[in-house]
């Protein structure tokens, strides 16, 4: 039997400051989709873990001294839902996340949050390397525009889809929100 948990990564107010992160972002409904999955987990009393990025850069909207560090209200933790505090891309490095998952005997992680190309991807890869069965929810994640090594511009949607393609099969199963909700409701 699979013991599943929801991992909500860096769904913080500061990520609305798109200019700091490269401008345009894709998937404007990502947070609403995160909330749908979160609500199903809450209804079923399944384990939920929130992750908050505490940037070490004092200029970052995610620095602990800034209001942008707060988790967005639509997915904010309630009751005793744990919040994992991190300051690197992986939710597993320098945190007690693995220990908490082990106590709950979790072997499957459903990952949502921001951003696809950074903390979602890094955490999904590390989770797979640690032996977890990982699902990344494609429309409950989002990416930002990027500038390449030669100054070329890459649209957020290209970054998002390419990142998901590099995860698919080797590190994670990629599903959309409705598929995840349907499979969890069986």
What does this structure look like?
The protein is an alpha/beta fold and 186 residues long. It has a 6-stranded parallel beta sheet, sandwiched between helices. It has a single domain, classed as Rossmann fold (3-Layer(aba) Sandwich), CATH 3.40.50. Helices cover 30% and strands 22% of the residues. The protein has 5 helices and 8 strands; from the N terminus they run E-H-E-E-H-E-H-E-E-E-H-E-H. Pfam families: Isochorismatase. Keywords: Hydrolase.
How are the secondary structure elements laid out?
Elements: E1 4-9, H1 30-44, E2 48-53, E3 83-86, H2 97-103, E4 108-114, H3 116-129, E5 133-142, E6 146-147, E7 153-154, H4 156-167, E8 173-175, H5 177-184
Parallel strand pairs: 1-2, 1-4, 2-3, 4-5, 5-8
Antiparallel strand pairs: 6-7
Key terms for this structure?
single chain, 186 residues, alpha/beta, Rossmann fold, 6-stranded parallel beta sheet, two-stranded antiparallel ribbon, 5 helices, 8 strands, 22% strand
- Number of contiguous helices: 5
What is the CATH topology descriptor?
Rossmann fold
**Secondary-structure element string:** EHEEHEHEEEHEH
Architecture per CATH nomenclature, i.e. the level-2 architecture: 3-Layer(aba) Sandwich
- Radius of gyration from CA coordinates: 15 Å
Q: Judging from the principal axes of the Cα atoms, what is the shape?
A: globular
Distance between the termini: 14 Å
CATH class: Alpha Beta
Instruction: Please bin the fraction of helical residues.
Output: 25-40%
Keywords: Hydrolase
GO molecular function, one term: hydrolase activity
Pfam families: Isochorismatase
Domain Isochorismatase-like: 5-177
């Amino acid at each position: 039997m699979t013991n599943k948990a929801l991992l909500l990564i860096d769904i913080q107010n500061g990520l609305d400051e798109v200019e700091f992160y490269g401008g345009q972002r894709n998937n404007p409904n990502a947070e609403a989709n995160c909330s749908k999955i979160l609500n199903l987990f809450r209804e079923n009393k399944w384990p939920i873990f929130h992750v908050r990025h505490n940037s070490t850069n004092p200029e970052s909207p995610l620095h602990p001294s800034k209001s942008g560090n707060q988790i967005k209200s639509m997915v904010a933790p309630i009751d005793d839902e744990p919040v994992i505090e991190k300051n690197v891309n992986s939710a597993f490095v320098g945190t007690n996340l693995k220990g908490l998952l082990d106590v709950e005997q979790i072997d499957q992680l459903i990952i949502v949050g921001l951003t696809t190309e950074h903390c979602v991807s890094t955490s999904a890869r590390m989770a797979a390397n640690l032996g977890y069965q990982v699902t990344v929810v494609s429309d409950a994640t989002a990416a930002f525009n990027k500038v390449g090594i030669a100054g070329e511009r890459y649209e957020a949607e290209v970054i998002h889809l390419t990142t998901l393609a590099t995860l698919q099969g080797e590190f994670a199963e990629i599903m959309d929100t409705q598929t995840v909700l349907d499979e969890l409701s069986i």
